């Protein structure tokens, strides 16, 4: 009997080990140390990519002004970039599913290199508009998310994705500071030169350190089979197919609408900081750095720990409820110090919502479609940047800053009641 029990236990351990290896895929064969190393490399690539991107975000208004582009033209420039990112997000995700996370990251970094090269040559307005075109494939964060999704088990995913917030904080702080110093001391074109060299280095890092195949081998065969049936990289039918999985449509709707009001506010923040708070450019930079530090603390230390102790649906409800409270605070705020206090729960809710919804949605679809799902999720912010200037401008001019807070409060209270009453069926699809 003891021998039979030992054999049964051994067989159970082998089966459990096989299941773990299947979940972790080829990364399981690489070993735990190798998996962690690859994930760390993905964090480094994401941090560098965001740093270079925020360097140009701070410089591009001055570059546009020096070329004679007015505020209306600058709005068109931003809208074009938002539309390209919106369209490219899903295409990039499908590309990652079909050709792998390494190929997707290389495409993103190479596109960023072309982007900065064109920026460095932008001595006229047409060239400046042309430099936006590579933005269609510039998706460093979704590329890193794809690597992390392939390299982690479902239980580890939320914490690992949450740590990308550290990269975002580093990008805001370092990118804004370095871009400002370089453009002030040298020229508005110097950050573009630095971004070009850095993006080329990022491309080499992705080639050398990211494995060519990060998915489970069984999932790779499923992906190839899916690719042969689905056809082109952009397919509305494929988007609709993903939305039909249990819980996907409901969670995605919450993801879009919960963050929309605060997204409109952040788009108008440069104007609000000048007109409503009366801040100078340097003070606005300090405020952005404060946001970056908060983001690093929340996503690096808080999100992962909460995800290990609470269910994801509980954390989703909490983030939506906190967002409603943030809306009330924004409606009542009068000074920049009020905003600094509100920023703490704001960053918490924003970070938690983004991380938890990404984790839920990637678990709810087959692992051969996680790239496409991440691409759809990555299109939410470009969508806000595309429609945001028009809607945000109307709200600010007609109703003032408090209108953003009241909109935030009403939308998220409605979503919170919806999440409490509805029974969203969530399932983890393995293949």
UniProtKB/TrEMBL annotation:
<dbReference type="InterPro" id="IPR001958">
    <property type="entry name" value="Tet-R_TetA/multi-R_MdtG-like"/>
</dbReference>
<keyword id="KW-0812">Transmembrane</keyword>
<feature type="transmembrane region" description="Helical">
    <location>
        <begin position="314"/>
        <end position="332"/>
    </location>
</feature>
<feature type="transmembrane region" description="Helical">
    <location>
        <begin position="160"/>
        <end position="182"/>
    </location>
</feature>
<feature type="transmembrane region" description="Helical">
    <location>
        <begin position="189"/>
        <end position="210"/>
    </location>
</feature>
<protein>
    <recommendedName>
        <fullName>Organic cation transporter-like protein 2</fullName>
    </recommendedName>
</protein>
<dbReference type="Pfam" id="PF07690">
    <property type="entry name" value="MFS_1"/>
</dbReference>
<feature type="domain" description="Major facilitator superfamily (MFS) profile">
    <location>
        <begin position="35"/>
        <end position="426"/>
    </location>
</feature>
<feature type="transmembrane region" description="Helical">
    <location>
        <begin position="105"/>
        <end position="129"/>
    </location>
</feature>
<dbReference type="GO" id="GO:0016324">
    <property type="term" value="C:apical plasma membrane"/>
</dbReference>
<feature type="transmembrane region" description="Helical">
    <location>
        <begin position="339"/>
        <end position="357"/>
    </location>
</feature>
<keyword id="KW-0472">Membrane</keyword>
<dbReference type="InterPro" id="IPR011701">
    <property type="entry name" value="MFS"/>
</dbReference>
<feature type="transmembrane region" description="Helical">
    <location>
        <begin position="41"/>
        <end position="64"/>
    </location>
</feature>
<dbReference type="InterPro" id="IPR020846">
    <property type="entry name" value="MFS_dom"/>
</dbReference>
<feature type="compositionally biased region" description="Polar residues">
    <location>
        <begin position="1"/>
        <end position="11"/>
    </location>
</feature>
<keyword id="KW-1003">Cell membrane</keyword>
<dbReference type="GO" id="GO:0022857">
    <property type="term" value="F:transmembrane transporter activity"/>
</dbReference>
<keyword id="KW-1133">Transmembrane helix</keyword>
<feature type="transmembrane region" description="Helical">
    <location>
        <begin position="252"/>
        <end position="272"/>
    </location>
</feature>
<feature type="transmembrane region" description="Helical">
    <location>
        <begin position="284"/>
        <end position="302"/>
    </location>
</feature>
<dbReference type="InterPro" id="IPR036259">
    <property type="entry name" value="MFS_trans_sf"/>
</dbReference>
<feature type="transmembrane region" description="Helical">
    <location>
        <begin position="76"/>
        <end position="93"/>
    </location>
</feature>
<comment type="function">
    <text>May act as a transporter of organic cations based on a proton efflux antiport mechanism. May play a role in the transport of chloroquine and quinidine-related compounds in kidney. Plays a role in the regulation of lipid metabolism.</text>
</comment>
<feature type="transmembrane region" description="Helical">
    <location>
        <begin position="399"/>
        <end position="420"/>
    </location>
</feature>
<dbReference type="GO" id="GO:0005635">
    <property type="term" value="C:nuclear envelope"/>
</dbReference>
<feature type="region of interest" description="Disordered">
    <location>
        <begin position="1"/>
        <end position="20"/>
    </location>
</feature>
